[in-house]
User: Fold this.
Amino acid sequence: LAAVRFIRPFVPPIVAGAVDNVTKPLRQVFTERRYGPNVPVTREGEVGHQMFVLLEGMADVVRGGTVIAQMKAGAHFGEMALLNDRPRAASVRTTTPCRILVCERGALAEVLHQSPTLAARFYLQLARTLSLRLDDAYAFFGEDRAVGSRPNPVG
Assistant:
């Protein structure tokens, strides 16, 4: 059920009545893994090719040895690995037993290649998520940069 809630924003509204048919290929690229408490899921500095969705449990986001955030069920992380081969910006470590969905970049790319509409929705949602994370980073580091207050570098 949590997987469906995560995937639902990527489904075009015009096909909302056919959610199962549209999201079935997307759901198939996610596999479930179970982790015990205090287990690393990602490691800061390593290059990754997966994103994750926390179905059950809690996890810490750790950067430079400091816990910078705590996540609970419904959170997702590792999205940048779907876009590039850069090192991960932080580690994620479980704090309780967890069930986590894992999505491999290659498998996702194959599915999205088959449905341009689904791909557009997926990447739009991903861009929104990353934009909010950037705003959170500005706030974390004490920079006074509210959404919309930055000049548009494109135009």
Observations:
- The longest helix spans residues 116-140.
- The two ends are 42 Å apart (CA to CA).
- Confidence is low (pLDDT under 50) at residues 10-18, 145-155.
- The beta strands are 30-35, 40-42, 50-56, 58-63, 66-72, 76-77, 91-94, 98-104.
